Automatic annotation (TrEMBL), chain A:
InterPro entries associated with the record: Lsm1, LSM_dom_sf, PTHR15588, Sm, Sm_dom_euk/arc
Phosphoprotein among keywords: yes
Predominant location category: cytoplasm
Entry coiled-coil feature ranges: none
The keyword Phosphoprotein is annotated on this UniProt entry: yes
Oligomeric and partner information: Interacts with SLBP; interaction with SLBP occurs when histone mRNA is being rapidly degraded during the S phase. LSm subunits form a heteromer with a donut shape.
Domain of life of the native organism: Eukaryota
UniProt record similarity statement: Belongs to the snRNP Sm proteins family.
Protein name: U6 snRNA-associated Sm-like protein LSm1
Automatic annotation (TrEMBL), chain B:
GO molecular function: RNA binding
This protein's record includes keyword RNA-binding: yes
Biased composition (Basic and acidic residues): 53-66, 282-297
Region described as Disordered: spans on this chain: 1-20, 43-80, 212-297
Organism, scientific name: Rhadina sibilatrix
Main subcellular localisation: cytoplasm
One annotated Gene Ontology cellular component of this protein: P-body
InterPro entries given in the database record: Pat1-like, PAT1_dom
Keywords of the record: Cytoplasm, Nucleus, Phosphoprotein, RNA-binding
A single GO BP: P-body assembly
This protein's name: Protein PAT1 homolog 1
Length: 133, 665
């Protein structure tokens, strides 16, 4: 039942399991229960999934109300194919630890980069101080 | 009992729905679906909070304390006839009636229910349905305590989960529920009653939905078949005013969209029904429903009504007062697609395919005139600033500074800003002019001369803007034009304008460009946009007579020069620039064309041209090859041009230097 030909709508997606990517980088997986005209989402039985390398960990979060503007993309999860993944699920503690390690490593490399650039007299402006366009 | 909302008699009131559950009842005065509000008391508008009131019949505002100051945009706005699109739907009056009551209603509540309507599902009727049976006249007193409140979604979900429901203390219903109820009782389908539609866009779904739920009617019952319940029903019928002319505007759905919506509603209901088996098979109904609940007990938290509401908003967003203004790219894209499809259909042998199109209907603009709110029994009117009636708060006075104060820099900056403004204004005119063709096709015969006149006027204005209209002055200075040409957007603007200008005007522009070309070249070094002018220039050249062309060459090459000048900087600059050289070639080519084709050229002109050519070729021979730019294109008749004026040896030189012979490259 195509609601409107040529348009995209979330109405068909209600009550289905979705993966939602947010602007702050989080990945949420939950059942889409309700929407509105701004694409604000109500996610039910939500789980925040953290990916590090080939591992991932799920943190159960309950009910989420996501403001529409913070959604980057979302897509329906095929329940049959959901388990068919090369990724390995680990416990929450483990994945958080992995994430922390990854963040640290990134920060270190970033620091080195900035230092090297400074030595050469160049400076890359921080992303948050750049203009949007 | 901290929160009490006022519910304005108008549809829903913009703020009431959120606070419905604990609303105190307001007596509803007058017809529910009133169109006109005679001097509206501000108290009837959406003041957010009011102290509890006694239930008096008469309300005399003058006896009250001063009303609370409201910053609501509604006061001071025209009475809202249609609920704005963003208004969320009311809480479910008739939610999914198939839900199972896991927690039956306490006895003392049930006992006071007066069942006026046949209950198709018996005890399986949801509490909300029971509540909505009106047991008192809408004109009369508010509900007695015994009527149980409407359950919120949360409570429904709790019901489902088996939790005990805590009934609301006040036990009163808000008038908004009355409104819904009235929609239920004996109301024809919204599509038949334009009155209902007009006033109740946000609640459009409710009557239809509730209507079905209540009477368990077959998919499309004609209004006449509806059983009209006795008692309050007849009251309500009397209340309804005559249906008015349905004037479509941006707050109403286009008929096709509405049809789509209703189709969907029916489909979903059919699905629902078919899913649950026949009406009489209660057992089967229950089990399949139970199964659904087991699989996903939280399904359908979002009602069909609410889904329709969201898609209704989406469809409304397709309507606009001027599609070509609001949605230009989609309109053009769609037209292209249509043309392609039409072409395909013409060629194809098969039957024409029916493609569902998404229409973007054009809707008339609705004029809102602001009528200031007037208190009953007061003198004068309240003037409140609101979104529909903006008021000037600050008197900002522009003080023009004197010339002495400004520094040179500021002057330059201001001048540049002036030029930018001119460019923008001219662009608006240009877009209008470009659009005239389409409007012409859409207009009636009688309107066309007026359209043409308008268009001509706009073109004149464009030209004036371009060349710097100065009253009394005879356009002696190129300054204004040069300013425009220094800006990248200005150059593009000129390129787009040229096709619309008269030949003399276009020639004028060309001349001005040629005259100041080195300056322009210097300024264009960063943008490199000048080549965009080549195509329109060549079109212009096509229509120019020899005399103009000659003067053009003169301007371009800055010849004849005084004997004292050692080098021809002008020409050098021109030749070293891609655009300059290409333009020169174009002009020369045109001249050659004219020469060779037209045998009747005057002798004088001929001489001028010949002399000019001789000088030009001399210069060309002088310039070192490395200094030459790479032109965009080399016209083919340049060889024949030069062959007239130089001997063979020099001709060969020229050929190699300018890469005139195609094969060499």
């Amino acid at each position: 039942m195509n609601y409107m030909p040529g348009t995209a709508s979330l109405i068909q997606d209600i009550d289905k399991k979705h993966l939602v990517l947010l602007r702050d980088g989080r990945t949420l997986i939950g059942y889409l229960r309700s929407i509105d005209q701004f694409a604000n989402l109500v996610l039910h039985q939500t789980v925040e999934r953290i990916h590090v390398g080939k591992k991932y960990g799920d943190i159960p979060r309950g009910i989420f109300l996501v403001r529409g503007e913070n959604v980057v993309l979302l897509g329906e999860i095929d329940l049959e194919k959901e388990s068919d993944t090369p990724l390995q699920q680990v416990s929450i503690e483990e994945i958080l630890e992995e994430q922390r390690v990854e963040q640290q490593a990134k920060q270190e490399s970033e620091k080195l980069k900035v230092k090297a650039l400074k030595q050469r007299g160049l400076s890359v402006p921080r992303a948050d101080t750049l203009d949007e366009y | 009992q901290a929160v009490h909302t006022r519910d304005p008699p108008q549809p829903g009131g913009l703020n009431s729905s959120i606070w419905d559950s604990s609303a105190m009842l307001r007596r509803i005065r007058g017809p529910l679906l009133a169109q006109e509000m005679p001097s509206v008391s501000v108290l009837d508008y959406a003041l957010p909070q009011r102290p509890p009131q006694s239930r008096d019949e008469e309300r005399d505002p003058s006896e009250r304390a001063l009303p609370r100051r409201s910053s609501s945009p509604i006061i001071g706005s025209p009475p809202v006839r249609a609920v704005p699109i963003g208004t969320p739907p009311k809480q479910a009056a008739i939610p999914n009636f198939n839900q199972q009551i896991l927690c039956p209603k306490p006895v003392h509540i049930r006992a006071t229910m007066q069942q006026r309507y046949p209950a198709p599902y018996g005890e399986r009727m949801s509490p909300n349905q029971l509540c909505n049976v009106p047991n008192s006249s809408l004109l009369g007193h508010p509900f007695p305590h015994s009527v149980s409140p409407v359950l919120t979604h949360l409570q429904r979900a709790q019901l489902l989960g088996g939790a005990q429901v805590k009934l609301l203390p006040a036990g009163r219903m808000s008038p908004s529920q009355f409104a819904r109820v009235s929609g239920l009782v004996g109301s024809p389908l919204p599509s038949v009653n334009p009155k209902l539609l007009q006033g109740r866009v946000g609640q459009m779904m409710s009557p239809a939905g509730g209507f079905r739920a209540f009477f368990g009617a077959p998919p499309a019952p004609p209004p006449s078949q509806l059983p009209h319940p006795p008692g309050p029903g007849s009251h309500l019928q009397n209340l309804r005013p005559q249906p008015q002319m349905f004037r479509p505007d941006t707050t109403h759905l286009h008929p096709q969209h509405r049809r789509l919506l209703h189709q969907r509603q029916q489909q979903s209901r059919n699905q629902h029904r078919s899913l649950n088996g026949s009406g009489g098979d209660r057992g089967g109904h229950r089990s399949s429903h139970q199964e659904q609940i087991r699989k996903d007990p939280y399904a359908n938290l979002m009602l069909q009504r609410e889904k329709d509401w969201v898609s209704k908003i989406q469809m409304m967003q397709l309507q606009s007062t001027d599609p070509y203004l609001d949605d230009y790219y989609y309109q053009n894209y769609f037209q292209k697609l249509e043309k392609l499809a039409a072409a395909e259909d013409v060629h194809g042998d098969g039957p024409k395919k029916e493609r569902t199109k998404l229409i973007t209907p054009q809707v008339a603009k609705l004029e809102h005139t602001y009528k200031p709110v007037q208190f009953e029994g007061s003198l004068g009117k309240l003037t409140v600033s609101s979104v529909n009636n903006p008021r000037k708060m600050i008197d900002a006075v522009v003080t023009s500074r004197s010339e002495d104060d400004e520094t040179k820099e500021k002057q330059v900056r201001d001048k540049r800003r002036q030029t930018l403004v001119t460019i923008e204004k001219t662009y608006s005119l240009l877009l209008d002019v470009e659009d005239y063709e389409r409007r012409y096709l859409l207009s009636l015969e009688g309107e066309r001369p007026a359209l043409m006149g308008e268009r001509k006027q706009k073109i004149c204005d464009i030209y004036d803007n371009l060349r710097g209209k100065a009253p009394g002055q005879d356009r002696l200075s190129d300054d204004h034009f040069m300013q425009i040409m220094c800006i990248r957007k200005g150059k593009r603007l000129v390129a787009r304008i040229l096709p619309f200008l008269a030949p003399e005007q276009a020639a004028d522009v060309l001349m001005a460009t040629a005259r100041n070309l080195p300056f322009l070249i210097k300024k264009d070094a960063q943008d490199e946009v000048l080549p965009c002018l080549l195509r329109p220039f060549s079109h212009v050249l096509y229509h120019l007579p020899l005399g103009t062309v000659t003067s053009l060459v003169q301007q371009l090459t800055n010849l004849p020069q005084s004997a004292a000048a050692p080098t021809n900087l002008h020409l050098t600059a021109v030749l070293q620039n891609k655009f300059g050289l290409s333009l020169l070639y174009l002009v020369l080519s045109r001249g050659e064309e004219l020469q060779s084709s037209d045998t009747n050229t005057e002798l004088m002109q001929d001489n001028q041209w010949t002399e000019l050519m001789l000088m030009a070729t001399r210069e060309l021979l002088r310039i070192p090859q490395g200094a030459l730019a790479k032109p965009v294109s080399i016209p083919s008749n340049l060889i024949s041009l030069f062959s007239r004026y130089v001997d063979q040896q020099k001709l060969n030189l020229l050929e190699t230097k300018l890469h005139l012979v195609q094969g060499i490259r």
